Amino acid sequence: MPLNHRLRCQCTSIYPGGMNTYTPDRGFDPFYTDRPLFTDLKIEIDNYFECENCSLTCENGGTFIDDPCHCSCAQNWTGKTCTKCALTGCENNGTFNKTTCTCTCPKQWMGNTCTDTRYYDCQDYSSDGERGIRVRTIYTSKYPRGLKVNCRGPGIVIQRHKNQDFDFNLGWGDYKDGFGDVAGQNFWLGNEKIRQLTEDTTNTWTIQVLCWLYGSGNKSLEGKIQKFRLLGENYTLQANDSISVEGGTILSANNMPFSTRDRDNRGDSDVNCAEELTGGWWFKGCSGGGTTEINLNGEYIANGTNKGLKRPQCADNNCPYIRRTLMVIKRNKRN
User: What are phi and psi of 78, to 5 degrees?
Assistant: First the structure.
C-alpha cells in the first residue's frame, strides 16, 4: 500500500504479500499491514483507512493535515474538528470565556489557566525575595509576551557603560531598539522600550544614576530624579531635576529630544552635539557653549593611567574621568 494516507484512500484493490513471488514495480514506497483484509470492495478498503474523514473542515484556528487525515487544533481546543474547548475553567479568579475558550487573568497572574505568576517589573521579582543584578523577563501591558531586562533589585537597568569593549557612537535605529547584551558590561536598553515603560502617566518613575570616578579615591557618586519619563517619537526627556557630578550635571536637558549622530533633533543647524560628543543623548548644548552637561554615552578613552568617559566640557582636564556608569529606573507607584 502507498505510505501516503491520501494515496491509500485511492486504492481499488489489495495485493496480499504472500501471493507475490517477486516484488512488483510500484511508483511509491509500500505500506505493509499484517491485518487480514480479504476484499477488493472499495467501500471496505475506504472504511479500513477511515477515508470518509479526508475532507475535514477544522474550526477555531485548527490546521488540516491530510496524512494521516486529521485536524491539528490550536491551543485550548480539541475534538475531531477542533470544536470542543479543552478548558473547564480558570484558576486564581480568572474569567473563563467559553466562546473563545480562553482565560482572562487578574494582573498578578498569567498563563493558559492563570496559574503562572506575572512579573510586571523588577519590583515584583524583588518582592519575591530576589536581590542583586539578574536578567529577568517582565510582562508589562505593553510587552505581554515578555521583555528581557537586567534587574538591579527593584529597578530596571537601562544603561551600563564600563569600558572600551563596545562603541556607543551609534545611529538612531540602534538607540531606538537597544544594543549590547543586557547581561553584559556595556548596553543601552533601547529608547522605545524605555518610552513604553515610562510613558503611561498612571505611574511615576525614578531614575537613579551611579558613576564611579577616577581620582579622589575612586569614589562613587549616586543621584536620583524622582520624576522621569520619555515621551513621543523623538523620546523627549521629562525630568523634574538634574544630577550634579564634579565638573558637570547629568540629565539637565529637560524637555529636549534625543539626538544621535545621524538624527539631530536639537534644532541647532550649526552643530550636531551627538556627532561632536560621540554618542546619543539629550543635549542642551555642546562643548564650547558653556554647558556643563555630561553625556554618559560618550566616547570611552584611556589617557595614561586615567581612563573613562571623554569630557570635552573639561578643557583643562581638571575634572575626574567617569570610569563606569549605571542608569536604573524604578516605578514609584503601582497600578
Answer: -145, -175
The CA-atom distances, in angstroms, between 57 and each of 48, 54, 80, 92, 238 are 21, 9, 9, 35, 55
Residue % of the chain over a pLDDT of 70: 76
**Sequence-distant (≥ 6) Cβ neighbours of residue 59 within 8 angstroms:** 77, 81, 82, 83
Helix (H) or strand (E) holding 273: helix 273-276
Do 301 and 213 fall into the same domain?
A: yes
Domain range spanning residue 132?
A: 119-331
DSSP string covering 274-329, please? HHHTTS-EE-S--TTTT--B--TTS-EEEETTEEEE--TT-TT--S--EEEEEEEE
Q: What is the CATH number of the domain that holds 229?
A: 3.90.215.10
Q: Considering only CA atoms, which of 164, 107, 159, 176 is closest in space to residue 301?
A: 164
116, 133, 333 from 122: Cα distances, Å:
16, 10, 13
Q: Residue 3: name the closest of 36, 26, 29 by CA.
A: 29
| 83 pLDDT above the threshold of 70 | yes
Say if CB 303 and CB 272 are below 8 A apart: no
Q: Is the domain of 146 the same as that of 284?
A: yes
Instruction: From 156, 234, 202, select the one nearest 335 (Cα to Cα).
Output: 202
Q: What is the pTM of this model?
A: 0.74
- Examine the domain organization and report whether 187 and 262 are in the same domain: yes
Residue 233 lies in a domain: yes
Mean pLDDT of 17-32: 59
**Residue 252 DSSP symbol:** -
Q: At 335, is the pLDDT very low, low, confident or very high (cuts 50, 70, 90)?
A: very low
- Angular region, 247: left φ>0, alpha ψ -120 to 50, beta rest: left
> How would DSSP label each residue in 154-200?
TEEEEEEE-STTS-----HHHHHH-EE-TTSSSEE--HHHHHHHH--
Rounded CA separation 335/48 (Å): 60
Report the half-sphere exposure of 74 (CA within 13 A, side-chain side).
9
